[in-house]
Fold this sequence. Notes:
Layout: H1 2-26, H2 34-42, H3 46-60, H4 62-70, H5 76-99, H6 104-138, H7 151-168, H8 174-183, H9 189-213, H10 219-239, H11 245-263, H12 265-275
Amino acid sequence: MEFAVLLPVIAIVFGGFVVGLLVGIxxxxxxxxxxxxxxxxxxxxxxxxxxxxxxxxxxxxxxAAWRHHRxxxxxxxxxxxxxxxxxxxxxxxxxxxHFGHPDTTHLGGxxxxxxxxxxxxxxxxxxxxxxxxxxxTKRVQQVDETIVARVAPTLxxxxxxxxxxxxxxxxxxxxxxxxLSLLYTAMPARRIVGTDIVHAIPLAFVAGLGHLxxxxxxxxxxxxxxxGSIPGIALGARLTGLIPDWMLRLALAIVLLVAAYLLVEDQxxxxxxxxY
Length: 276
């Protein structure tokens, strides 16, 4: 009986360990597994899963962000305009969730659909990201001081990213790196990754606090995820280089596609029934 009670806890801690392991090895993308894992695997309400995952992401990315800052891998002018847009988008979305009182059942379905789209985009982005980064390093790169922030597109992308991340908790990682690579083709890859990671922390933290204030949060669930993810990240960092990066990214892309399907499985089955 006691084991039956502990079984879900052990499963969540193990899930956090797997996510942490993938984050430690690949660096990006694996965080997208947490929310769909909580919804499809453990039956957590979509809004609670998103709110909990946002603060989980902010905590787990903290150490990596500090390291990038110390190495000088952050372009602060670009990050500032990106953050102005994303935090505005996050606060506007949180205000709508708080004052608009959207139907939670309908909102849960919308979140599932948006999650599926974000997961598919991440699954496409993650395998091709090394190719984009490789092209980035081969370009004749400008001195960092000469790279000027493109205010309008950076602000606009940040605004869109803030809305998506607040509703789904996904998008600030691989998708952010891919778009920044397109906006700033002359910037070194390490600076793009560092800027994206540091930017993701205030965005996830603000959006997570907003969900916390609305009750879309589970302290115990967060503790269980961290209990597994912290040793997972440490082990993953040590395993980096032992497994081919392309193999890990391909496997991660497949897992994300499966997670996207599980989120919208009911809708897909209904469409198939209508078609046949």
